[in-house]
Amino acid sequence: MDITITESTVEGTAQAPPSKSYTHRAVLAAGYADGAVVHDPLVSADTKATMRAVEAYGGSVSLAADESTVEVTGFDGRPGTPDDVISCANSGTTMRLVTATAALQDDLTVLTGDGSLRSRPQGPLLDAVEQLDGDAESTRRNGQAPLVVGGGIDGGAVEIPGDVSSQYITALLMAGAVSSDGIDIDLTTELKSSPYVDITLEVLDDFGVDAEKTDAGFTVEGGQSYAPGGGDYNVPGDFSSMSYLLAAGALAAEDGLRVTSAFPSAQGDAAIVDILDRMGADLDWDRENGEITVSQSELTGIEVGVEDTPDLLPTIATLGAAADGVTRITDAEHVRYKETDRVSAMAEELTKMGAEVEEKQDELIVYGEDSDLVGTTVEGRADHRIIMSLAVAGLVADGETTVAGAEHVDVSFPDFFDVLDSLGAAVKR
């Protein structure tokens, strides 16, 4: 599906979609439990992959007709061996989290995904499972899916790098809680994207599981049970997805845009509020009521490190292309290992639109003062965050911007273009 956005303004009120990160963790935590009801989940291609994995391990998942709740009957910490291969589709979070689940069962589980997912690194997590005396192999022996994992781990100590993916840490903590001995994690390199592990610790706590940071890394005791208070869990709004709405407001909301469900949480991507403020956006956050109001503003480029907020790079790059001055995005090398190489993708696609961009291995530099955005056809790269960021750029580009392959927004924000349309943006399918 191609989407065409014509230069236009937005206004009104939009509700932030539920958090993808919290939904993944809550659904799997409910699977580790006897069960739970997850309220206000994000129902997307990625989170459906996690739901299918819970069912493959012996749980059951029932989605309400209006998608307001997911009722999970769990496998109570004892996953069974799946009857078939688990397909994680394009969801890296699903694959990494449920790879550790596979290590808990005695037999072998096969996990795979689409072409993009089969190119993403899983080697450090496979090595960690082997350190715990589990079985973990890449079928192509390149550290990438398809994976074959099992062995019935009891727990123990692992050494693992922290600068490839924080999802490895999340996977081990979640599985370690129901292992017999627990897992001690020693980080051999600095942890990137650490707020995502903070999200994991928050969800674990809400499900009655104790895990904590240590001087060396993290630890979780074994023999614990997952059980949320009252059997219910509420998913907060998603700041990663919210970033596109807030950016649209800062660039194109002459009369202001209000975003609801913006309550504070452990999400690192809430940093988008501070980033917009530093760039000079007219913005106000009512934290108590979970509302952010933002208006079209004259923005100025800044330097931003994304070591802890990799998903914000496409949004920041778009803002930089429309701002005065230079926007320098640093600590970005790990952003190359997402659904696509997001550093190169944003450099190449914004250049097509007339932006002056310099790409380095660990940085993306956008020269806003030398950029004059014009509509053209850009490629979404089968990456939801690239698609949404380029669509926002289209709001302020001269003429029409066509984003090819726009259907992939279903990964995290399925009704993104409907929301843009409801806010007054000129969107044509």
From TrEMBL:
Cited Gene3D superfamilies: Enolpyruvate transferase domain (3.65.10.10)
GO CC term, one of those recorded: cytoplasm
Domain Enolpyruvate transferase span(s) in chain numbering: 8-420
Entry's localization field: Cytoplasm
Entry-linked SUPFAM superfamilies: EPT/RTPC-like
Domain of life: Archaea
Region (Disordered), start-end ranges: 1-20
UniProt pathway: Metabolic intermediate biosynthesis; chorismate biosynthesis; chorismate from D-erythrose 4-phosphate and phosphoenolpyruvate: step 6/7
Amino-acid positions noted as binding phosphoenolpyruvate in the UniProt annotation, renumbered to this chain: 20, 92, 120, 167, 342, 385
Catalysed conversion reaction: 3-phosphoshikimate + phosphoenolpyruvate = 5-O-(1-carboxyvinyl)-3-phosphoshikimate + phosphate
Listed GO MF terms: 3-phosphoshikimate 1-carboxyvinyltransferase activity
Active site: 311 (proton acceptor)
Record InterPro entries: Enolpyruvate_Tfrase_dom, Enolpyruvate_Tfrase_sf, EPSP_synthase, EPSP_synthase_CS, RNA3'P_cycl/enolpyr_Trfase_a/b
Residue sites binding 3-phosphoshikimate per the record: 20-21, 25, 165-167, 193, 311, 338
Alphabetized PROSITE patterns for the sequence: EPSP_SYNTHASE_1 (PS00104), EPSP_SYNTHASE_2 (PS00885)
PANTHER family, per the entry: AROM/DEHYDROQUINATE SYNTHASE, PENTAFUNCTIONAL AROM POLYPEPTIDE
Family from the record: Belongs to the EPSP synthase family.
Subunit structure, interactors included: Monomer.
Protein name: 3-phosphoshikimate 1-carboxyvinyltransferase
Protein species of origin: Haloarcula japonica (strain ATCC 49778 / DSM 6131 / JCM 7785 / NBRC 101032 / NCIMB 13157 / TR-1)
Lineage: Archaea, Methanobacteriati, Methanobacteriota, Stenosarchaea group, Halobacteria
Gene name tied to this protein: aroA
